[in-house]
Design goal:
single chain, about 230 residues, mainly alpha, about 70% helix, globular
């Protein structure tokens, strides 16, 4: 991010768009954390930190970030549709696939209401079943239209995942607010080197435990959609 007034304005824009108060819809999803908590795979702060790190390293960096980079190379409409189709192929777990679509539609709805024409166009395509409208595609389209560059888009999306998971953990009673901050610090220490490293050329995910657990029956109901 460049220095000076222009860089400062973009930094403020990135902070506003990555804030948990921004109505992105993603905070309604735990990415399998709720299921991991129910089954005892995640019971406290250290387990949560490991879960967040796995999601960063083996789902976001190797999957979503690759698709964000493709959108950055071809930010036009056709490029967005190709990325959305690739996101659909990558989403092999039904619960996570539906969650990604729902979160993407929520984000597109927010930006469309704020006047983003690209968001409105992709939202219309998703509602008409002409494109899935996955969260990663919505993030790329919306954040680039908001004036963020590729590096800022990646940083906001990475931070959004960390905030989503730590917020979910607090609501699930896995950690308190101070514990969530300690996990966040550990996550930032993981994310920094990842952001400084080029993503893989082809997308893949390797969060097998979370993928299996998220499909288990919810029993007496769920707090989160995933």
């Amino acid at each position: 991010m460049s220095a000076g007034p222009a860089g400062g304005a973009r930094l403020l824009a990135a902070m506003a768009l990555g804030d948990s108060a921004f109505p992105s819809g993603a905070l309604a999803f735990s990415s399998g954390l709720e299921a991991a908590t129910r089954t005892g795979a995640v019971t406290g702060e250290d387990d949560l930190a490991d879960f967040v790190e796995e999601q960063l390293r083996h789902r976001w960096h190797t999957g979503d970030r690759v698709l964000l980079a493709r959108c950055a190379r071809d930010p036009g409409w056709e490029g967005a549709l190709l990325v959305d189709a690739e996101a659909e192929r990558l989403a092999v777990v039904d619960v996570l696939r539906r969650g990604s679509r729902t979160a993407g539609l929520a984000l597109l709805g927010t930006f469309a209401a704020l006047g983003s024409a690209p968001a409105a166009r992709l939202r219309a395509a998703a509602l008409a079943d002409r494109s899935p409208g996955h969260l990663v595609t919505a993030q790329a389209v919306c954040l680039r239209d908001a004036g963020l560059g590729p590096a800022e888009v990646e940083a906001v999306c990475c931070w959004s995942l960390v905030a989503q998971l730590t917020s979910a953990a607090v609501r699930l009673g896995v950690v308190g607010h101070l514990g969530a901050q300690r996990v966040t610090r550990r996550a930032v220490a993981v994310a920094g080197p990842l952001l400084a490293t080029a993503p893989p050329r082809e997308p893949w995910t390797g969060t097998a435990l979370a993928d299996v657990l998220v499909g288990l029956p919810a029993g007496d109901g769920r707090l989160f959609a995933t």
